[in-house]
Amino acid sequence: MLFKSTLALSLVLSADAFAVRRGANDWSAPTADDRRSPCPMVNSLANHGYLPRTGLNKALLTSTTGNNATFNLDDLNTHGVIEHDGSLSRNDIYFGDNHSFNQTIWESVASHFTEPTISISTAAKARKARLQDAASVNPEFTLTADGAQFSFIETALYLSVFGNLDNGDANTEWVKVLF
């Protein structure tokens, strides 16, 4: 668990050190040769050039083990690393592709976001509904303690990154762009 947390934080906190800029961090869709992870936040960093746009050979500069080995973003697709059943925008591993954006799943989650901002309560209801939906259609649905923690972290991340400092409500349009 410590490794997974360190890995996730390493990617986010050291993103600017890997910047490969085109213009002022213009968005660019990944090419067929680029790699992406199951995490929309990490993918957004790569699509904007804060991480290498190719998604290849990431250095773990802040690794606490002292090993600066590299990895590719799609290495994170391994079930149970940061990818988990009940993702807000990806299918479960049981159905095959657990890393590509799934419009149907995202629309079911986004249907809860009917106001200009997403409150903590609304985010929690959307998260709960997604987990219930996933469990109802996936006969092998599992959510380990680590998976549950990442599930809560991904919701907390979009609320904290896009949220109002006073009440925590996130701008709905910004969250939709992220996914």
TrEMBL record:
Q: Is the Cell membrane keyword given for this protein? A: no
Q: Which SUPFAM superfamilies match?
A: Cloroperoxidase (SSF47571)
Q: Per its Swiss-Prot or TrEMBL entry, what cofactor is needed? A: heme b
Q: Pinpoint the Heme haloperoxidase family profile domain residues.
A: 23-179
- The source's superkingdom equals Eukaryota
The molecular function terms of the Gene Ontology recorded here are: metal ion binding; peroxidase activity
Extent of the signal sequence: 1-17
Q: Which residues form a coiled coil?
A: none
Q: Does the keyword Heme apply?
A: yes
What are the entry keywords? Heme, Iron, Metal-binding, Oxidoreductase, Peroxidase, Signal
Q: Which family does the entry's similarity section mention?
A: Belongs to the chloroperoxidase family.
Its name, as the record gives it, is: Putative sterigmatocystin biosynthesis peroxidase stcC
What is the organism field in this record?
A: Colletotrichum shisoi
Instruction: Recall the taxonomic lineage recorded for the source organism.
Output: Eukaryota, Fungi, Dikarya, Ascomycota, Pezizomycotina
